[in-house]
Amino acid sequence: MKQMLAQVTSLETLSKNVYQVVLALPEAMTFAAGQYLQVVMDERDKRPFSIASCPSSTTTVELHIGAMPDNPYAMEVIEAIRNNGELTIEAPLGQASYRANSDRAMILIAGGTGFSYTWSILQAHLRDDTQRPVTLYWGGRAPEDLYYDARLRELSKQHKNFHYRPVVEQADANWHGAIGLVHHAVLAEQTDLNEADVYVAGRFEMVRIIRDEFHAQGLPLQQLYGDALAFI
Questions:
Q1: pLDDT in tens, 41-74
Q2: Which residues lie closer than 8 Å to 31 by C-beta, 6 or more apart?
Q3: Which of 17, 22, 125, 140 qualifies as a cystine partner to 10, CB 3.0-4.6 A?
Q4: Do 129 and 158 touch, CB atoms closer than 8 A?
């Protein structure tokens, strides 16, 4: 892990409340898919965000930051980007990274901008030229929250080993995915959790429920990955 000053090369909106941030690094950085960085606001205030980019990119990193006006934790980072055009970061961090050497099927579960964690892992996996199956379940409140939905549907057509399952809590009759909670969709479809590697990112409460319910359904805890697990 190293502290460095990164220049902001892009700040764009992916949806109403999600920002895509691209940072140019002062030197090449090696990281593993699924790791995160910390934005250093000051030495006692360091805020973690998953790295959304693939590790094949070593001189830039991409973040997906969910920020609303009533969420100062994230919005202050966006304001710092706008005001300064740079961020002090610490990276890479995290132990819940992609296990490329496993031969088990992969299940990726994301809630909201937890997608950035699974997106990095998915990109790395699809670059590996492996037939090992991977299924991504992405949950949001409404269809517009799944800002890469069309892109993921296209990827699932291009890669036979990739299956995409979008899940929202509210949608009209034209919605093409599941309706409900994302972990319920996983449990409805996946009957052999003991034979899978499961990666999860989202709100701590969601991760806790997944840990407890999936373990009760036969998932060994050593096959469940997510940095939030260290805090719940």
A1: 999 999 999 999 999 999 999 999 999 888 899 9
A2: 51, 55, 61, 91, 92
A3: 22
A4: no
